[in-house]
Design goal:
CATH topology of the largest domain: Immunoglobulin-like
Shape: elongated
Largest sheet: 5 strands, mixed
Number of strands: 9
CATH superfamily of the largest domain: Macroglobulin (MG2) domain
Length: 165
């Protein structure tokens, strides 16, 4: 009896293993067909996609975080699939660069941006008014420049920092 039960459980294990492998293969094939790569390479630098840079206000007190929003605008006649967004954020006071960072935002699955539409990127990004040496910047006017990579498209915004405390 014990040998019979052992044979039954081996058969069940083999059957479950075969089912698991079959499900894994069918899932992999399904994902391949859903997300298969285009056959032709796309020159992303020639695509008509533009960034728009937003801030939550235009005037800030010294030390207040400056919250940033990024919107992508699809100016193509076809819809775009985007899997990640990467951009450089550079901040200038007059013509001197005081801060720079690279931000990369990955989507769990491709987002679709329809022709002549926009898409808000939920980055939660902010600038803490610190320079490259982590010092508080003085009051003044600052130019924030976003460069969307690899498209090399830019967007900019001017903010004013006051000492109105």
């Amino acid at each position: 009896m014990i040998g019979s039960e052992s044979g039954q459980s081996t058969k069940k294990f083999t059957f479950l293993t075969i089912i698991t492998i079959a499900l894994g293969i069918s899932s992999a094939l399904s994902l391949y067909w859903i997300y298969k790569l285009p056959k032709e390479s796309i020159n992303v630098e020639k695509m008509k996609i533009s960034p728009i840079l937003y801030t939550d206000k235009e005037k800030y007190n010294v030390g207040d975080p400056i919250r940033l929003g990024v919107v992508l605008s699809n100016e193509e006649t076809t819809r775009l699939e985007v899997v990640r967004v990467e951009y450089n954020l550079t901040i200038f006071e007059t013509e001197q660069k005081i801060y720079e960072t690279n931000i990369r935002y990955e989507f769990g699955r491709p987002i679709i941006i329809e022709p002549n539409s926009t898409y808000w990127i939920p980055t939660g990004q902010s600038w803490n008014q610190r320079d490259l040496l982590n010092r508080q910047v003085p009051e003044g006017r600052y130019l924030l420049v976003l460069t969307l990579l690899p498209y090399n498209q830019t967007a900019s915004k001017i903010v004013v920092i006051n000492n109105d405390q």
